[in-house]
Amino acid sequence: MSAREDIMNRIASALRDAPATPEVPRGYRRTTSKTPEQRLEQLVDRLVDYKANVYVIQEAEAPAKLAELLAGSASIVVPHGLPESWLTSVKNDAGSPAVEVDSPQRRLTVAELDAVDAVVTAAAVAVSETGTIMLDGSPDQGRRIISLVPDRHICVLHAGQVVEVLPEAIARLEATLPQTWISGPSATSDIELERVEGVHGPRTLDVLILR
Question: Least CB-packed of 19, 61, 78, 82 within 10 Å?
Fold first, then answer.
């Protein structure tokens, strides 16, 4: 008998008298009941409640808005697959920040990421009911670390990526990809229940929703 067979036999023996596993109820909502406008309004409400800065704009306005938000920043980091059109105004403005690109060919170190002022990423999907934005490591979102180390995260998503309930979002995600779920800026409470921000992620979250 192999070691594996011995272990499996012991597990089976230990579980022999265990009660039957009950069927798990699956009666929760799986689909949306809100219109796209209602989902967008709900998401904005949740994000604002989480103290995120939210801007609903036309897609053509994205470059100018990003340049406005990044004014005064010395440097930013972006994933290698971020649409270059989003950064045209950022790169062309006088005094614009230096743009560091994190890619499989050149992975920025923690020290390098800690030195930049902000990160700009796209998103995979957002859940309006919980105000959660999900990143899945796709080229326009990059490695998990680039959205966790810099002090400011500017996340750009399309209105069509907003769903109402969590099961809808899960259905859109690839389970094998690394995921980051964001519900507002990083925050926690100390022993006296005082809110403390930026403990394990960015202190500031800016969300651009493109119509």
Answer: 19
How far apart CA 205 and CA 194 sit, in angstroms, is: 20
pLDDT tens-place string over residues 3-43: 999 999 999 888 888 888 888 888 888 888 899 999 999 99
In this predicted model, what pLDDT tens digit does every residue of 154-166 receive, in sequence order? 999 999 999 999 9
**Residue 91: what are its φ and ψ, rounded to 5°?**
-80, -25
pLDDT for the residue 198: 66
With helix as H, strand as E and coil as C, how does the chain read? CCHHHHHHHHHHHHCCCCCCCCCCCCCCCCCCCCCHHHHHHHHHHHHHHCCCEEEEECHHHHHHHHHHHCCCCCEEEEECCCCHHHHHHHHHCCCCCEEEEECCCCCCCHHHHHHCCEEEECCCEEECCCCEEEECCCCCCCCHHHHCCCCEEEEEEEHHHEECCHHHHHHHCCCCCCCEEECCCCEEECCCCCEEECCCCCCEEEEEEEC
User: Alpha-carbon distance 117 to 97, whole Å?
Assistant: 9
Rounded to two decimals, what is the model's pTM? 0.84
Identify the pLDDT of residue 92: 64
